């Protein structure tokens, strides 16, 4: 977790002031300290930065298309595709041999299909790759700017701009989100250099930025760099023992105060 701003440090004093001057609120405050604290803390952030895949967009919305080609294999192939995608870019990062996320995604798909022992035509591979430009956003995404009009929204992803720009356009989200890609510096998250690039581009102090991701490895990387973080725990899983914790845990983006 990053350092606290002066405003964030003053939050306990705010509670004390409310308790002394508005005693009728004391019971409410006492019973809702966590929610009040979180709401006040969220008010101090100037930029909300979101991972794309799994956070804003549902990577498993490809299952319907997969099912059209390989009936009853949609969930298995989709999960294999995603697991291998993450594994392959992490291996590439450890090797210090960068390849664009388009290549990583294609290789992961080819191996997922091979592992599933299905017969594949080249045109099917292209159809499924194109589906990554048509992933569906989670239901709550479209209303984010309506409920948080004072925030700057940015997507920061390992995906290339050639993948992300059509994805935003196809879902009519280009006006809502500015876009940053780790491909611009050819260093994948969760490497610190990737987050440093985003930090410099955003132009805010670390503690003024809140980074959202559904991926623990991404949250850990952002937190290690010094960002405040919000783990979007859609599957209500246990936070892994990584020796570092998210600043906030929410189940979905509707829970942003």
Automatic annotation (TrEMBL):
GO MF: hydrolase activity, acting on acid halide bonds, in C-halide compounds
Keywords from the named record: Hydrolase
Annotated family: Belongs to the HAD-like hydrolase superfamily. S-2-haloalkanoic acid dehalogenase family.
Name assigned to this protein: Haloacid dehalogenase type II
Organism in which the protein naturally occurs: Halobacillus litoralis
């Amino acid at each position: 977790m990053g350092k606290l701003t002066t405003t964030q440090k003053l939050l306990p004093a705010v509670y004390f002031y409310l308790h002394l001057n508005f005693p009728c609120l004391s019971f409410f405050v006492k019973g809702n300290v966590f929610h009040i604290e979180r709401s006040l803390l969220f008010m101090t952030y100037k930029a909300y930065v979101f991972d794309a895949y799994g956070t804003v967009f549902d990577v498993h919305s490809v299952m319907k298309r997969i099912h059209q080609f390989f009936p009853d294999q949609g969930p298995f192939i989709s999960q294999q595709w995603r697991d291998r995608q993450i594994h392959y870019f992490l291996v590439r990062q450890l090797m210090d041999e960068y390849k664009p996320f388009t290549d990583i995604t294609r290789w992961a798909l080819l191996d997922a299909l091979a592992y599933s022992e299905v017969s594949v035509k080249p045109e099917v591979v292209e159809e499924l790759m194109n589906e990554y430009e048509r992933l569906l956003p989670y239901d709550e995404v479209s209303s984010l700017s309506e409920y948080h009009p004072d925030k700057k929204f940015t997507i920061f992803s390992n995906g290339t701009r050639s993948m992300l720009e059509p994805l935003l356009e196809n879902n009519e989200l280009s006006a809502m989100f500015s876009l940053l890609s780790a491909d611009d510096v050819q260093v994948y998250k969760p490497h610190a250099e990737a987050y440093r690039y985003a930090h410099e581009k955003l132009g805010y102090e670390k503690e003024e930025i809140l980074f959202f991701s559904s991926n623990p490895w991404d949250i850990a990387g952002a937190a290690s760099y010094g960002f405040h973080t919000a783990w979007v725990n859609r599957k209500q899983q246990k936070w892994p023992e990584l020796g570092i914790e998210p600043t906030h845990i929410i189940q979905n983006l509707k829970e942003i105060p």
